[in-house]
Every structure is written in structure tokens, then in C-alpha cells.
Amino acid sequence: MRISSSYFFQTGLNSINAQQSDLLHLYQQAASGQRMVTPADDPLGAAQAVNLSQSQSLNERYAANRDVLKMNLGNEENALSSVTTLLQDIKTRLVEAGNGTMSDADRATLADVLRNSKETLFGLANSTDGNGQYLFSGFAATQPAFVKNADGTVSYAGDGGQREIQADQTRRIAATDLGTSVFASAASGSRAYLTHADTGNQGTGVIGGPSITDPQGDHVGLPFTIEFSETAGPDPVLQYTVHTFDADGDAETYGPLNYDEGTTTLQLPGGVQVAFSGLPKAGDSFSVEPATHADTELNVFDTLDAIIAALDAPADGNPLGQAQLANALASAMQRIDVNYDQVLTVRASVGSRLSEIDAIDANGSARGLSYANQLSKLEDVDYYTVTTQLELRRSALEAAALAFKKIQGTSLFNMGSS
Q1: What is the CA radius of gyration of the chain?
Q2: Whole-number Å distance between alpha carbons of 239 and 219
Q3: Class of domain 34-186+298-380 (CATH, top level)
Q4: Which tens digit of pLDDT belongs to each residue from 179-190?
Q5: CATH 1.20.1330.10 occupies which residues in the chain?
Q6: Which of 152, 300, 375, 394 has the greatest CB tally within 10 Å of its CB?
Q7: 354: how many CB neighbours lie within 10 A of its CB?
Q8: Residue 287's beta-bridge partner residues?
Q9: What is the mean pLDDT of residues 326-343?
Q10: What are the φ/ψ torsions at residue 239 (nearest 5 degrees)?
């Protein structure tokens, strides 16, 4: 069979080009450090690398989200720590206000102190995250959580949405808490009771702290109303009647029962009692209700307004005024205690979320290392192998060039071209 010279040239050129192409590919691998210069080098490995890269990017995004969470929750913890200290100081001031030796002037001074405390608390309730976002406003993060009304009262101006951030593929964590849940509500499951004396009372009856005498009592957790009346006749007897309301709103009435001025507690039906003293008058009424039923009355700013007004009102030499002050103080102390407990509950929740974020962070870091290791196995070149292959390919290229040169110089080559 006769072989044309063009075939000889083309075959030699193809062999040299193939060796050069392989050598160039190895050079590219060595220079880039990548095993797959193009997806064609390993189609399955390239697809796996794309999936792993996407998972790694998501893992990094979740890590960035957790950093934002830690910053927001850290800011909230700082704010709540200051609120805790402030509420402790307010409780101390309320105890001072109950000191029977204080004059009207002393109480007025104390009222000014509480006004300043209210302003400080207002500022803390409108804390921001450092980027102009209000911590306790819900989704309405660009507006203050609390605003002052024309009459000087403070009300919540945020919304009911709680901001959550995706901390991991299957976990969203609240980045902040609502202002209403921090400053105007009782802790979930609280069994605390609150008392209130009617503003129209004319007697000197003072209602104190309620307590549960029987945790399994039929009426524990239900609200009560205590109403005083007098019997008819020349020698009227002071009596009181207790009304309680079940979950359906149905009322039950107990009494009337005779009231003795030396009484120190009133036994309410169903496992509850309340401290009581003084001499009420017919028509006076008092309420005793669970803190969880009284969320509308637990705005800490309203509580401060009420006690400030009570401290400003003259009471020296006025038994009725002193009774009203004592009732206002008792009511305020109970509400501040509930607010204080709720702030501690929220702080505990913040701490628990920060701990969870740390745990998720550790898992995310381990996952990131795993992704990086798998990607390295798929993408990174083995330099020992590639340098060995470079030497082999370079030798092969030299051999192919030498073979072409020798074949070109043979007489048979010349004969084939005639």
C-alpha cells in the first residue's frame, strides 16, 4: 500500500498537536490548582461541585444572618439589662413612698424622681439596633415603639409582627421582641393577682396583696369584685359581697358577709385571699383579677402616671387621701412586680436564643468544613500526579517530534511522495 506524503505530515502533526494539547491541559491544572479546567473533564464531578458550592453559599448566608441576630439580640439584652436596673430602682422608690413619715412635699419630690425614671424608661423602650431600626416596634421598625400622646400618656406605636431571621435551613429565630410583650403584659402562665380600688371610694379601706391559699381551688385564676354595703335599721352592720366570674363570663355571688374593722385578710371563694385593712363605706368596691386578664392595665407607663398623680395629691391630715395613696401604691407595686418579672422572662428568652445561635453556629462551621473538604476532593488538583503527568507528556511530545523528524528524512518517505 502506498502512503502519501500529506498523510505522513498530517499524522505526525496530529500526534504532536495531541501531545501539546494534553501538556497544555496539565499546565492549566498546575497553574490554576483546579482538577477540572472545564466541566468536560468530569461532568458528574462538575455537577456535584455546583451543588456543593450552592450549599456552601447558603451556609455562609445563614452564618451572616446569625451575625445579625447576635447583634440585634445583644442590643436588646443591653437595653433590657438597663430596664431591669431601672425597675428595681422604681420598686425601691415605691417602698419609700409607703413610708408613713413622708410629707406631701417629700412625696412631690419623689414624684419628680419617678417622672425622670419614666423618661429614662421611655428612651430604653425606644432603643435602636444601631442602624436606625427600633428594637421593640415589630415590623414597623422605622418608627418608635412608644410615643407620647397629647395628654402626656405613652402608648405603643409599633405593630404586632415579630421580626424573625432565618438562622438555618429549618430554623427561624426572633431577632427582637414586641414592646407590648416587654412593657405591657404579664409573663405567660403567671398566676399573679392584681388589686384595684375604685376611684369613687369614700372610705378608708385599703386592699393589699392577694395570694393563693389553695392552688387547686375552684376559682384560682378567675377575677373577683368586692362590694361593701350596710344593713338597714338603727344599728347598720357593714358587710361585703364577693362576685366572681367564670371563663364564660357567668357570675357567682358569695355573701353578704359581715366585715370587722380589725380584719386583716378577706377570704375569697375558691382558694384566694387578699390583705385588707381600714374602714370602707357602703358603696365602696375593689377588684382582684389575674395579671393575665389585665394586659390592658399593665402598661408600665400608665402605672407610673397613676402613682405620680397619687404622690402629687395632698394627703397630710386626710384619712381618705391617705387611703387612696395606700391603694395606689399597693396597686402600682403589684403591677411593677409583674412588669419586672416579664422583663426577666424576656431576658431569659433572649439568652436562650443566643445560646441556640451559638449551637447552630458550631453546627454551621462543621458543615462548612465538610463542604470545603468535599469541594477540595472534587476540584483541587493533585500536584504530585500532575507534575508526574507533565514529565510524561513532555517526554511523549519530544518523542513524537523526534519520530516525525526521523520519518521525514527516510528515503521511503521520499519514495512515497513521488
Answers
A1: 41
A2: 22
A3: mainly alpha
A4: 888 998 888 777
A5: 34-186+298-380
A6: 300
A7: 17
A8: 196, 225
A9: 91
A10: -130, 165
